[in-house]
Amino acid sequence: MTTTTPLIKFDVCIYKSDDISQEEFLNWSTKVYPVKAGPLIKRYGIVKWTHTVQPTGFREPMRHAMKTDMGRPDWTVPDYDLVTTYWLRSLDDMRALTADPEWVQLEKEACIKSNIAIGHFVVGHEVVHFEGNVDNAGA
C-alpha cells in the first residue's frame, strides 16, 4: 500500500492599497496579475492556484449574523480583500518561486496595488470530507 503526502495549502490573505478602489484591485488581482504570474507559478510546479474574493458587502452582514444569529459575538470577519491560495508539494517550491527574479519584479507591481504593511499567512494541509455533492443542488 502506498501512501501519498498531502499537498500543502498556502493561503496569503491580502488587503488592497487604500489608494485604489476595490473594483480596480479585484480586476488587477483576478484578471491582469494571473496572466503575468500564471506561467511563472506553473514553472515552479505549483499544483493549483486560486483566489477567494471577499467583497466588502459580505463583511458587515456576516459580522452581524455571527453576533446575533450564530451566538459568536467574539468571532471576527477580517477585512481581507483577497485570499490567494497555492497548493504545493513542498514549501521549497514556494521558496524557489519567490526567489525568482521574475517573481520579484511582479511583486514590485503587487506592492503598489496591495497594502503590504499588513496581511496574513495560513499554511497547512487541507482535509476534504466531501466534494462534488452536486446531485443535491437545489433540492
TrEMBL record:
Domain EthD: 18-105
Pfam family of the protein (one): EthD
GO terms, molecular function: oxidoreductase activity
Family as reported in the entry's similarity comment: Belongs to the tpcK family.
Protein name in the entry: EthD domain-containing protein
Signal peptide: none
